[in-house]
Specification:
The structure is a homodimer of 197-residue chains.
Chain A lengths: L16 H15 L6 H7 L15 H13 L11 H18 L4 H5 L8 H13 L4 H25 L4 H7 L9 H14 L3
Helix pairs in contact in A: 1-3, 4-7, 4-9, 6-7, 7-9
Chain A binds a DNA duplex (19 and 19 nucleotides) through loops.
Protein name (chains A, B): AcrR family transcriptional regulator
InterPro entries (chains A, B): Homeodomain-like_sf, HTH-type_TetR-like_transc_reg, HTH_TetR, Repressor_TetR_C, Tet_transcr_reg_TetR, Tet_transcr_reg_TetR-rel_C_sf
GO molecular function (chains A, B): DNA-binding transcription factor activity; transcription cis-regulatory region binding
Chain lengths: 197, 197
DNA sequence: ACCTGAACACCGTTCAAGT
DNA sequence: ACCTGAACACCGTTCAAGT
Protein backbone atom coordinates (compact mmCIF):
# COMPACT_ATOMS: atom_id res chain seq x y z
CA UNK A 1 0.00 0.00 0.00
CA UNK A 2 1.26 3.40 -0.97
CA UNK A 3 2.26 5.82 1.74
CA UNK A 4 -0.49 8.34 2.29
CA UNK A 5 0.61 11.91 2.82
CA UNK A 6 0.81 12.39 6.56
CA UNK A 7 -2.27 13.91 8.13
CA UNK A 8 -0.33 15.51 10.91
CA UNK A 9 1.97 18.51 10.83
CA UNK A 10 2.41 20.09 7.38
CA UNK A 11 0.16 18.13 5.02
CA UNK A 12 -1.31 21.27 3.47
CA UNK A 13 0.16 22.22 0.10
CA UNK A 14 3.17 24.46 0.62
CA UNK A 15 3.15 28.14 -0.23
CA UNK A 16 4.21 29.35 -3.67
CA UNK A 17 4.50 32.75 -5.31
CA UNK A 18 1.58 31.89 -7.56
CA UNK A 19 -0.71 31.00 -4.67
CA UNK A 20 0.33 34.13 -2.79
CA UNK A 21 -0.33 36.44 -5.75
CA UNK A 22 -3.66 34.76 -6.40
CA UNK A 23 -4.82 35.17 -2.81
CA UNK A 24 -3.65 38.78 -2.75
CA UNK A 25 -5.54 39.56 -5.96
CA UNK A 26 -8.67 38.04 -4.47
CA UNK A 27 -8.39 40.29 -1.42
CA UNK A 28 -7.80 43.40 -3.55
CA UNK A 29 -10.69 42.61 -5.90
CA UNK A 30 -13.05 41.75 -3.06
CA UNK A 31 -12.15 44.24 -0.35
CA UNK A 32 -9.95 46.89 -1.94
CA UNK A 33 -6.25 47.65 -1.99
CA UNK A 34 -6.33 49.27 1.43
CA UNK A 35 -7.29 46.00 3.08
CA UNK A 36 -4.42 44.03 1.56
CA UNK A 37 -2.28 43.35 4.59
CA UNK A 38 0.48 40.86 5.14
CA UNK A 39 -1.35 39.59 8.19
CA UNK A 40 -4.68 39.30 6.36
CA UNK A 41 -2.95 37.66 3.41
CA UNK A 42 -1.43 35.18 5.81
CA UNK A 43 -4.87 34.39 7.21
CA UNK A 44 -6.25 33.79 3.70
CA UNK A 45 -3.40 31.36 3.03
CA UNK A 46 -3.82 29.73 6.46
CA UNK A 47 -0.30 30.60 7.38
CA UNK A 48 1.45 33.01 9.68
CA UNK A 49 2.09 36.34 7.93
CA UNK A 50 5.82 36.00 8.39
CA UNK A 51 5.92 32.84 6.27
CA UNK A 52 5.24 34.98 3.19
CA UNK A 53 8.64 36.63 3.48
CA UNK A 54 10.28 33.31 2.82
CA UNK A 55 8.85 33.36 -0.72
CA UNK A 56 8.91 37.12 -1.28
CA UNK A 57 12.15 38.35 0.31
CA UNK A 58 11.49 41.92 -0.80
CA UNK A 59 8.24 41.82 1.15
CA UNK A 60 5.15 43.80 0.30
CA UNK A 61 6.96 45.76 -2.39
CA UNK A 62 7.54 42.54 -4.29
CA UNK A 63 3.97 41.43 -3.69
CA UNK A 64 2.58 44.62 -5.26
CA UNK A 65 4.98 44.29 -8.19
CA UNK A 66 3.66 40.78 -8.72
CA UNK A 67 0.07 42.02 -8.75
CA UNK A 68 0.86 44.67 -11.36
CA UNK A 69 2.65 42.22 -13.61
CA UNK A 70 -0.15 39.68 -13.25
CA UNK A 71 -2.78 42.20 -14.32
CA UNK A 72 -0.93 44.42 -16.80
CA UNK A 73 1.18 42.00 -18.82
CA UNK A 74 -1.30 40.99 -21.53
CA UNK A 75 0.22 41.21 -25.02
CA UNK A 76 -1.89 41.83 -28.09
CA UNK A 77 -2.28 38.99 -30.57
CA UNK A 78 -3.27 39.55 -34.21
CA UNK A 79 -4.32 35.93 -34.82
CA UNK A 80 -7.90 35.49 -35.90
CA UNK A 81 -8.49 39.11 -36.81
CA UNK A 82 -9.32 40.38 -40.28
CA UNK A 83 -6.79 43.22 -40.11
CA UNK A 84 -4.50 45.08 -37.76
CA UNK A 85 -7.17 47.64 -36.96
CA UNK A 86 -9.53 44.94 -35.80
CA UNK A 87 -6.73 43.32 -33.85
CA UNK A 88 -5.96 46.55 -32.00
CA UNK A 89 -9.63 47.14 -31.31
CA UNK A 90 -10.04 43.63 -29.97
CA UNK A 91 -7.00 43.96 -27.75
CA UNK A 92 -8.19 47.30 -26.39
CA UNK A 93 -11.58 45.86 -25.42
CA UNK A 94 -10.03 42.86 -23.72
CA UNK A 95 -7.43 44.97 -21.93
CA UNK A 96 -10.07 47.37 -20.64
CA UNK A 97 -12.11 44.42 -19.31
CA UNK A 98 -9.01 43.16 -17.56
CA UNK A 99 -8.25 46.49 -15.92
CA UNK A 100 -11.83 46.96 -14.77
CA UNK A 101 -11.96 43.43 -13.35
CA UNK A 102 -8.99 44.33 -11.15
CA UNK A 103 -9.71 48.00 -10.58
CA UNK A 104 -8.01 47.91 -7.20
CA UNK A 105 -4.67 47.30 -8.90
CA UNK A 106 -5.02 50.34 -11.17
CA UNK A 107 -3.41 52.79 -8.71
CA UNK A 108 -0.41 50.47 -8.51
CA UNK A 109 -0.11 50.40 -12.29
CA UNK A 110 0.26 54.16 -12.22
CA UNK A 111 2.95 54.26 -9.58
CA UNK A 112 6.59 53.97 -10.52
CA UNK A 113 6.75 50.34 -9.51
CA UNK A 114 7.61 47.59 -11.91
CA UNK A 115 8.66 49.55 -14.99
CA UNK A 116 9.05 46.42 -17.10
CA UNK A 117 5.50 45.10 -16.56
CA UNK A 118 4.16 46.93 -19.61
CA UNK A 119 7.17 46.32 -21.87
CA UNK A 120 5.86 43.13 -23.50
CA UNK A 121 2.42 44.67 -23.98
CA UNK A 122 3.72 47.78 -25.74
CA UNK A 123 6.14 45.69 -27.80
CA UNK A 124 3.27 43.54 -29.07
CA UNK A 125 1.26 46.62 -30.01
CA UNK A 126 4.19 48.09 -31.93
CA UNK A 127 4.67 44.79 -33.73
CA UNK A 128 1.05 44.68 -34.91
CA UNK A 129 1.29 48.26 -36.15
CA UNK A 130 4.59 47.59 -37.90
CA UNK A 131 3.14 44.57 -39.69
CA UNK A 132 0.18 46.73 -40.66
CA UNK A 133 2.54 48.99 -42.53
CA UNK A 134 2.77 51.85 -40.06
CA UNK A 135 6.34 53.20 -40.14
CA UNK A 136 8.57 52.57 -37.12
CA UNK A 137 8.41 56.01 -35.49
CA UNK A 138 4.66 56.26 -35.98
CA UNK A 139 4.16 52.79 -34.53
CA UNK A 140 5.92 53.74 -31.29
CA UNK A 141 3.75 56.83 -30.95
CA UNK A 142 0.56 54.95 -31.79
CA UNK A 143 1.30 52.09 -29.39
CA UNK A 144 1.89 54.48 -26.49
CA UNK A 145 -1.14 56.56 -27.41
CA UNK A 146 -3.40 53.55 -27.52
CA UNK A 147 -2.16 52.20 -24.22
CA UNK A 148 -2.43 55.66 -22.65
CA UNK A 149 -6.02 55.96 -23.81
CA UNK A 150 -7.07 52.54 -22.53
CA UNK A 151 -5.44 53.00 -19.12
CA UNK A 152 -6.65 56.57 -18.75
CA UNK A 153 -10.20 55.70 -19.73
CA UNK A 154 -10.29 52.81 -17.29
CA UNK A 155 -9.08 55.20 -14.59
CA UNK A 156 -11.83 57.72 -15.34
CA UNK A 157 -14.40 54.95 -15.43
CA UNK A 158 -13.38 53.53 -12.06
CA UNK A 159 -13.52 57.03 -10.56
CA UNK A 160 -16.88 57.74 -12.13
CA UNK A 161 -18.62 54.54 -11.14
CA UNK A 162 -17.63 54.38 -7.48
CA UNK A 163 -20.34 54.19 -4.80
CA UNK A 164 -22.25 57.45 -4.76
CA UNK A 165 -20.25 58.87 -7.65
CA UNK A 166 -23.33 59.89 -9.64
CA UNK A 167 -24.77 61.79 -6.70
CA UNK A 168 -21.49 63.54 -5.97
CA UNK A 169 -21.06 64.51 -9.62
CA UNK A 170 -24.57 65.96 -9.73
CA UNK A 171 -23.90 67.92 -6.54
CA UNK A 172 -20.80 69.39 -8.17
CA UNK A 173 -22.87 70.81 -11.00
CA UNK A 174 -21.95 68.07 -13.42
CA UNK A 175 -24.70 68.37 -16.03
CA UNK A 176 -24.29 64.88 -17.43
CA UNK A 177 -26.73 62.10 -16.75
CA UNK A 178 -25.53 58.53 -16.21
CA UNK A 179 -22.70 57.71 -18.60
CA UNK A 180 -22.61 54.65 -20.85
CA UNK A 181 -18.94 54.01 -20.27
CA UNK A 182 -18.55 51.14 -22.71
CA UNK A 183 -20.14 53.07 -25.57
CA UNK A 184 -18.00 56.07 -24.77
CA UNK A 185 -14.88 53.93 -24.65
CA UNK A 186 -15.60 52.37 -28.04
CA UNK A 187 -16.42 55.71 -29.65
CA UNK A 188 -13.19 57.25 -28.40
CA UNK A 189 -11.27 54.17 -29.47
CA UNK A 190 -12.54 54.47 -33.05
CA UNK A 191 -11.72 58.16 -32.96
CA UNK A 192 -8.18 57.22 -32.05
CA UNK A 193 -7.81 54.34 -34.52
CA UNK A 194 -9.15 56.46 -37.36
CA UNK A 195 -6.25 58.82 -36.80
CA UNK A 196 -3.82 56.06 -37.77
CA UNK A 197 -3.45 56.32 -41.51
CA UNK B 1 0.81 102.50 20.49
CA UNK B 2 -0.85 99.58 18.82
CA UNK B 3 -0.94 96.27 20.60
CA UNK B 4 1.71 93.96 19.22
CA UNK B 5 0.67 90.36 18.71
CA UNK B 6 1.77 88.48 21.82
CA UNK B 7 5.11 86.76 21.53
CA UNK B 8 4.24 84.10 24.04
CA UNK B 9 2.00 81.08 23.66
CA UNK B 10 0.30 80.86 20.25
CA UNK B 11 1.64 83.73 18.21
CA UNK B 12 2.31 81.55 15.14
CA UNK B 13 -0.31 81.86 12.41
CA UNK B 14 -3.07 79.35 13.05
CA UNK B 15 -3.60 76.29 10.90
CA UNK B 16 -5.86 76.42 7.87
CA UNK B 17 -6.95 73.89 5.28
CA UNK B 18 -4.95 75.74 2.63
CA UNK B 19 -1.73 75.64 4.66
CA UNK B 20 -2.27 71.96 5.44
CA UNK B 21 -2.84 70.98 1.80
CA UNK B 22 0.15 73.03 0.71
CA UNK B 23 2.46 71.38 3.23
CA UNK B 24 1.13 67.93 2.32
CA UNK B 25 1.73 68.56 -1.38
CA UNK B 26 5.27 69.63 -0.61
CA UNK B 27 5.92 66.37 1.25
CA UNK B 28 4.42 64.27 -1.57
CA UNK B 29 6.35 66.11 -4.26
CA UNK B 30 9.60 65.98 -2.34
CA UNK B 31 9.52 62.59 -0.66
CA UNK B 32 6.72 60.60 -2.26
CA UNK B 33 3.19 59.65 -1.29
CA UNK B 34 4.35 56.86 0.99
CA UNK B 35 6.03 59.31 3.33
CA UNK B 36 2.98 61.51 3.76
CA UNK B 37 2.09 60.82 7.36
CA UNK B 38 -0.14 62.70 9.74
CA UNK B 39 2.73 62.86 12.18
CA UNK B 40 5.22 64.08 9.58
CA UNK B 41 2.69 66.58 8.28
CA UNK B 42 2.29 67.84 11.81
CA UNK B 43 6.06 68.28 12.09
CA UNK B 44 6.16 70.27 8.84
CA UNK B 45 3.44 72.56 10.19
CA UNK B 46 5.14 72.77 13.59
CA UNK B 47 2.12 71.39 15.28
CA UNK B 48 1.12 68.15 16.96
CA UNK B 49 -0.35 65.71 14.40
CA UNK B 50 -3.65 65.59 16.24
CA UNK B 51 -4.24 69.30 15.64
CA UNK B 52 -4.84 68.55 11.96
CA UNK B 53 -8.02 66.66 12.77
CA UNK B 54 -9.55 69.85 14.04
CA UNK B 55 -9.45 71.26 10.50
CA UNK B 56 -9.99 68.01 8.61
CA UNK B 57 -12.52 66.03 10.62
CA UNK B 58 -12.56 63.21 8.08
CA UNK B 59 -8.83 62.80 8.66
CA UNK B 60 -6.39 61.52 6.10
CA UNK B 61 -9.16 60.59 3.68
CA UNK B 62 -10.13 64.25 3.47
CA UNK B 63 -6.49 65.29 3.16
CA UNK B 64 -5.98 63.06 0.12
CA UNK B 65 -9.23 64.29 -1.43
CA UNK B 66 -7.93 67.82 -1.01
CA UNK B 67 -4.67 66.96 -2.76
CA UNK B 68 -6.50 65.44 -5.73
CA UNK B 69 -8.78 68.44 -6.10
CA UNK B 70 -5.86 70.83 -5.79
CA UNK B 71 -3.94 69.11 -8.60
CA UNK B 72 -6.68 67.87 -10.92
CA UNK B 73 -9.17 70.72 -10.98
CA UNK B 74 -7.72 72.85 -13.80
CA UNK B 75 -10.36 73.87 -16.33
CA UNK B 76 -9.50 74.63 -19.94
CA UNK B 77 -9.79 78.20 -21.13
CA UNK B 78 -10.17 79.15 -24.80
CA UNK B 79 -9.16 82.79 -24.29
CA UNK B 80 -6.14 83.86 -26.31
CA UNK B 81 -6.16 80.92 -28.67
CA UNK B 82 -6.70 81.11 -32.42
CA UNK B 83 -9.21 78.27 -32.48
CA UNK B 84 -10.66 75.48 -30.37
CA UNK B 85 -8.06 73.02 -31.61
CA UNK B 86 -5.25 75.24 -30.40
CA UNK B 87 -7.08 75.78 -27.12
CA UNK B 88 -7.37 72.05 -26.50
CA UNK B 89 -3.75 71.50 -27.42
CA UNK B 90 -2.67 74.26 -25.09
CA UNK B 91 -4.75 72.89 -22.24
CA UNK B 92 -3.40 69.37 -22.76
CA UNK B 93 0.21 70.57 -22.57
CA UNK B 94 -0.45 72.59 -19.42
CA UNK B 95 -2.41 69.78 -17.78
CA UNK B 96 0.34 67.26 -18.51
CA UNK B 97 2.91 69.62 -16.95
CA UNK B 98 0.70 69.91 -13.90
CA UNK B 99 0.32 66.14 -13.50
CA UNK B 100 4.05 65.53 -13.93
CA UNK B 101 4.92 68.26 -11.42
CA UNK B 102 2.83 66.38 -8.85
CA UNK B 103 3.44 62.82 -9.99
CA UNK B 104 3.02 61.50 -6.47
CA UNK B 105 -0.65 62.47 -6.54
CA UNK B 106 -1.32 60.55 -9.76
CA UNK B 107 -2.15 57.25 -8.03
CA UNK B 108 -4.72 59.10 -5.94
CA UNK B 109 -6.30 60.60 -9.05
CA UNK B 110 -6.88 57.08 -10.30
CA UNK B 111 -8.49 55.78 -7.16
CA UNK B 112 -12.19 56.14 -6.57
CA UNK B 113 -11.74 59.07 -4.25
CA UNK B 114 -13.19 62.46 -4.95
CA UNK B 115 -15.36 61.73 -7.99
CA UNK B 116 -16.24 65.40 -8.46
CA UNK B 117 -12.67 66.68 -8.74
CA UNK B 118 -12.60 66.26 -12.52
CA UNK B 119 -16.14 67.48 -13.19
CA UNK B 120 -15.25 71.11 -13.82
CA UNK B 121 -12.31 70.13 -16.00
CA UNK B 122 -14.36 67.83 -18.27
CA UNK B 123 -17.17 70.38 -18.38
CA UNK B 124 -14.78 73.05 -19.64
CA UNK B 125 -13.46 70.71 -22.33
CA UNK B 126 -16.97 69.88 -23.51
CA UNK B 127 -17.80 73.58 -23.64
CA UNK B 128 -14.81 74.38 -25.86
CA UNK B 129 -15.72 71.53 -28.20
CA UNK B 130 -19.37 72.58 -28.30
CA UNK B 131 -18.42 76.15 -29.18
CA UNK B 132 -16.15 74.74 -31.87
CA UNK B 133 -19.17 73.22 -33.53
CA UNK B 134 -18.74 69.61 -32.40
CA UNK B 135 -22.20 68.13 -31.75
CA UNK B 136 -23.19 67.41 -28.14
CA UNK B 137 -22.70 63.64 -28.11
CA UNK B 138 -19.39 63.86 -29.92
CA UNK B 139 -18.16 66.55 -27.54
CA UNK B 140 -18.75 64.30 -24.53
CA UNK B 141 -16.82 61.48 -26.16
CA UNK B 142 -14.00 63.75 -27.27
CA UNK B 143 -13.65 65.43 -23.87
CA UNK B 144 -13.37 62.09 -22.08
CA UNK B 145 -11.01 60.73 -24.72
CA UNK B 146 -8.71 63.70 -24.47
CA UNK B 147 -8.63 63.61 -20.68
CA UNK B 148 -8.07 59.84 -20.73
CA UNK B 149 -5.16 60.25 -23.08
CA UNK B 150 -3.47 62.98 -21.06
CA UNK B 151 -3.86 61.15 -17.74
CA UNK B 152 -2.85 57.80 -19.20
CA UNK B 153 0.19 59.25 -20.94
CA UNK B 154 1.33 60.98 -17.78
CA UNK B 155 0.96 57.66 -15.95
CA UNK B 156 3.10 55.82 -18.52
CA UNK B 157 5.64 58.60 -18.42
CA UNK B 158 5.96 58.56 -14.64
CA UNK B 159 6.35 54.77 -14.72
CA UNK B 160 8.87 54.95 -17.51
CA UNK B 161 11.10 57.63 -16.03
CA UNK B 162 11.48 56.29 -12.50
CA UNK B 163 14.95 55.64 -11.07
CA UNK B 164 16.50 52.77 -12.98
CA UNK B 165 13.53 52.44 -15.30
CA UNK B 166 15.61 52.46 -18.45
CA UNK B 167 17.85 49.69 -17.19
CA UNK B 168 14.92 47.56 -16.07
CA UNK B 169 13.18 48.02 -19.41
CA UNK B 170 16.30 47.02 -21.29
CA UNK B 171 16.68 43.94 -19.08
CA UNK B 172 13.09 42.96 -19.95
CA UNK B 173 13.92 42.91 -23.64
CA UNK B 174 12.44 46.30 -24.33
CA UNK B 175 14.11 47.22 -27.62
CA UNK B 176 13.50 50.95 -27.38
CA UNK B 177 16.21 53.41 -26.55
CA UNK B 178 15.54 56.40 -24.31
CA UNK B 179 12.12 57.86 -25.07
CA UNK B 180 11.47 61.55 -25.81
CA UNK B 181 8.29 61.64 -23.79
CA UNK B 182 7.28 65.17 -24.66
CA UNK B 183 7.64 64.60 -28.40
CA UNK B 184 5.71 61.37 -28.10
CA UNK B 185 2.99 63.07 -26.10
CA UNK B 186 2.58 65.86 -28.65
CA UNK B 187 2.56 63.44 -31.60
CA UNK B 188 -0.14 61.31 -29.99
CA UNK B 189 -2.08 64.43 -29.08
CA UNK B 190 -2.16 65.60 -32.70
CA UNK B 191 -3.15 62.10 -33.75
CA UNK B 192 -6.09 62.36 -31.38
CA UNK B 193 -7.07 65.93 -32.28
CA UNK B 194 -6.96 65.16 -35.97
CA UNK B 195 -9.67 62.55 -35.38
CA UNK B 196 -12.07 65.32 -34.34
CA UNK B 197 -13.72 66.47 -37.51
C1' DA C 1 13.58 24.13 3.71
C1' DC C 2 9.78 26.08 5.54
C1' DC C 3 7.21 28.07 9.07
C1' DT C 4 6.27 30.30 13.90
C1' DG C 5 6.45 33.74 18.05
C1' DA C 6 7.86 37.54 20.01
C1' DA C 7 9.45 41.98 19.41
C1' DC C 8 10.34 46.78 17.27
C1' DA C 9 9.33 50.96 15.18
C1' DC C 10 6.03 52.81 13.10
C1' DC C 11 0.90 54.01 11.51
C1' DG C 12 -4.24 56.54 11.84
C1' DT C 13 -7.42 57.90 15.07
C1' DT C 14 -10.16 58.77 19.70
C1' DC C 15 -10.72 61.12 23.66
C1' DA C 16 -10.08 63.66 27.70
C1' DA C 17 -7.60 67.52 29.03
C1' DG C 18 -5.36 71.91 28.72
C1' DT C 19 -5.27 77.18 27.38
C1' DA D 1 -11.74 77.71 19.41
C1' DC D 2 -7.69 75.52 18.94
C1' DC D 3 -4.17 72.52 20.32
C1' DT D 4 -1.76 68.72 23.29
C1' DG D 5 -0.69 63.96 25.57
C1' DA D 6 -1.61 59.61 26.32
C1' DA D 7 -3.63 55.62 24.67
C1' DC D 8 -5.57 51.93 21.31
C1' DA D 9 -5.65 48.95 17.59
C1' DC D 10 -3.41 48.25 13.94
C1' DC D 11 0.74 48.14 10.31
C1' DG D 12 5.49 46.04 7.84
C1' DT D 13 9.49 43.80 9.00
C1' DT D 14 13.60 41.43 11.65
C1' DC D 15 15.35 37.80 13.96
C1' DA D 16 15.98 33.88 16.68
C1' DA D 17 13.86 29.63 17.21
C1' DG D 18 11.34 25.52 16.08
C1' DT D 19 10.36 21.20 12.96
Amino acid sequence: MVRQPAINAQNRTPLSIERIIEAALQIVDGQGLGRLTMRRLGDALEVEAMAIYHHLPRGKEQLLDGLVTHVAAAPADAHGYAGWRDALRGWARAYRDRLLAHAGVLPLLVTRRNPAALATTTASLREILRQGGVPEAGAAVAAHSLLSYVIGHAALEVRGTGPGAAGAAAAAGEPEGPVDWEARFLAGLDLMLSGLT
